[in-house]
Amino acid sequence: MVQHLLQRRGAARIALIPPEVLEALNDGLVPTVNLNEFLALDVPRLARRVAASIGLDPRAERLEDTLAMLGAFKPLKRHLHVARAFYDMTAPRPDRDRIAHALAVHPSDVARSWAAQWVAFPDLGFAERLAAVRRFAADPHFGVREMAWMAVRADAGADIDRTVRLLRPWVLDPDPNLRRFACELTRPRGVWCAPIEALQAQPWRALALLEPLKSDPSLYVRNSVANWLNDAARSQPGWVRGLCARWCHESATRETAALTRRALRSLRDVAD
Questions:
Q1: Residue 73 has what DSSP assignment?
Q2: Which residues of 63-95 are buried (b: 16+ CB within 10 A; e: fewer)?
Q3: CB 231 within 8 A of CB 184
Q4: Burial of 169 (C-beta count, 10 Å sphere; 0-12/13-18/19+)
Q5: Are the beta carbons of 2 and 24 closer than 8 angstroms?
Q6: CA distance from start to end of the chain
């Protein structure tokens, strides 16, 4: 039984992770709670345990070849390769949908992250990818939500006007995780990914996604908007200053004031 581990606080250092917790993490029984736990994972062991739990052969040649080369890659790339191996292993199987669902609802957040990355592999249109990634964008675990937007980032940058049109309903959704996804996906510079050059040059093209969020009740969403604008300020500082001034005039709330202060932080540092 691992129920008593679910409410734990993450260790401050990898060396301080209790052996019982590390065993449960590597067996895919509990989600990680911080970056230290994620970095401490024995990925080959976890991959084999997850494979067996969803009905795949944990000793399949395709998986073993992938696990043997993981050491050559940075941590995030390792997980992309595992996700691809699982995807390829299911290709000839008639029960692929069942396996995909089992991976998507797995107790391990890392396993669910692998499922989120599957969205990038098939030949789908962007609207179809968004529909497929939605469940992961709303996942209760922060790590899965990050993998969700990364899985469709390349598509988002290919046609900004299309992306803004398709994401407009997301920023109006009651779920703050989905509102935040739409914002994070379109950040001009992004995190762990290539920038969107069109939005670095013309950030106002995504204004329809930002306007509804300027006084969002969720700090999680507001911080994402502030980070979006901080990205844009590196290439279009005048536009960001003007937008923040207008927002503060039109929306005299604590939420908007805090958001704009955070958005302008890099510009203040330059001025100082």
A1: S
A2: beebbeebeeeeeeebbbbbbbbbbebbeeeee
A3: no
A4: exposed
A5: yes
A6: 55
pLDDT digits (tens, 9 = 90+) for 83-94: 999 999 999 899
Q: And the tokens for 60?
A: 């399949």
**Contact call for residues 36 and 12 (beta carbons, < 8 A):** yes
CA distance 99 to 169: 30
Q: Which of 112, 123, 116 is nearest to 32 (CA)?
A: 112
- Indicate the SS3 state at residue 169: coil
Amino acid found at 4: H
Is the dihedral angle over the CA atoms 39, 79, 46, 72 positive or is it negative?
Answer: negative
CA distance 24 to 249: 52
3-class SS at 232? helix
* pLDDT digit string, tens, across residues 205-257: 999 999 999 999 999 999 999 999 999 999 999 999 999 999 999 999 999 99
Residues 6+ apart with CB under 8 A from 256: 214, 215, 247, 248
Distance between CA atoms of residues 109 and 114, nearest Å: 9
Q: pTM (2 decimals)?
A: 0.93
- Helical segments of the chain, H only: 19-26, 35-40, 43-53, 61-68, 75-90, 96-104, 109-117, 126-137, 142-151, 153-158, 160-167, 176-185, 197-201, 207-210, 219-233, 237-250, 254-263, 265-271
Smallest CA-to-CA distance from 224 within 264, 194, 262, 198 is with 262
Tokens of 61: 């040649």
Cβ contact 227:218 at 8 Å = no
DSSP state of 194: -
